[in-house]
From TrEMBL:
It comes from the Bacteria. One of its GO terms (molecular function) is methyltransferase activity. GO terms for biological process: methylation. Residues 41-136 form the Methyltransferase domain. CDD domains: AdoMet_MTases (cd02440). InterPro entries: Methyltransf_25 (IPR041698), SAM-dependent_MTases_sf (IPR029063). This is Methyltransferase domain-containing protein. It holds the Pfam family Methyltransf_25. Keywords: Methyltransferase, Transferase. PANTHER family: TRANS-ACONITATE 2-METHYLTRANSFERASE, TRANS-ACONITATE 2-METHYLTRANSFERASE-RELATED. The lineage of its organism: Bacteria, Pseudomonadati, Pseudomonadota, Gammaproteobacteria, Pseudomonadales.
Length: 282
């Protein structure tokens, strides 16, 4: 099996790929907390980087929890936190099917996860509102790429790869997604106003701060590793199984050309939301 496909199927390599985007946003997100929490729960905690950053930032943290769906990433999170001497309780769980917990938290965070919960984000919002302490803070990030025909963000590179591989004409890419039963990332990333409407059913929105997130890579191989660790085989239904390796190579070449032409692969607006539970929800 090709190494990049094996990585995509296992979602391995996130410790490296997260340096390209998610880790850069970590301090920016935590800066929005506005409190020095004694308890923190990070949803979709990945390899534990935000938990580690929070432990270093707030030495008064008494309870540090993380929930992650991927057993591999949980194992990596445990190793990273243990190596840094940080005590944390890490649980495996699906964010759309979490059991109630007896604990409540002063701060609940979630970064680079929301689009994977579409269209059921409110299921998690209800859970979060019930697990915040009184006056607790919910911090989460959302991405809002420019979208055309429902395609946006990573869909743009994928569409270019499909066209170059002769798998779809440009005007047929959206239809190919539909035929494969695959939701484009441009659909998963709701517009900010549509998202706000859903958030405000459960929380008071204190602030939304936005900035562009530019993705830059050293070469084609680095982009392939980033895509494999971040998206896994999500886009595989669009490509014949016998051409999946070619698909990853093509994505890498497109990313490399964009770096040479524009100095970046892509740029997507990212927002940090600071929320508190509405009265009666907590």
């Amino acid at each position: 099996m090709n190494a990049i496909i094996e990585q995509a199927r296992s979602l391995d390599g996130y410790q490296d790929s997260s340096e390209l985007l998610q880790r850069r946003d970590q301090d920016w997100v935590l800066d929005r907390a506005g409190i020095e929490p004694r308890s923190l729960l990070d949803l979709g905690c990945g390899i534990g980087s935000l938990l580690l950053g929070a432990a270093r930032r707030w030495p008064g943290l008494q309870r540090l929890w993380g929930i992650e769906r991927s057993p591999l990433r949980l194992e990596q999170a445990r190793a990273q936190l243990r190596g840094a001497g940080v005590e944390a309780r890490l649980l495996e769980g699906d964010l759309l099917d979490l059991p109630p917990l007896a604990e409540r938290f002063e701060l609940i965070s979630m970064t680079a996860v929301l689009h994977w919960l579409y269209p059921d984000e409110e299921r998690l919002f209800r859970w979060v509102a019930r697990h915040l302490e009184a006056q607790g803070v919910f911090l989460f990030t959302s991405h809002h790429p420019f979208a055309e025909d429902g395609l946006g963000g990573e869909d743009d590179l994928v569409a270019q790869a499909l066209v170059e591989m002769g798998l779809a004409a440009p005007e047929r890419v959206a239809a190919l997604y539909a035929e494969a039963g695959l939701l484009p990332m441009g659909t998963r990333t709701r517009g900010r106003e549509a998202l706000r409407e859903r958030v405000e059913r459960h929380f008071r929105v204190d602030s939304i701060v936005s900035r562009p997130a530019a993705l830059r890579v050293a070469d084609s191989a680095e982009y392939q590793r980033f895509h494999a660790a971040t998206f896994g085989t999500y886009f595989a239904p669009l490509v014949p199984a016998t051409r999946l390796e070619e698909f990853f190579v093509r994505l890498g070449r497109i990313a490399e050309r964009r770096m040479q032409a524009d100095g970046q692969v892509s740029e997507i607006p990212v927002s940090v939301w600071r929320c508190r539970a509405r009265e009666g929800e907590a």
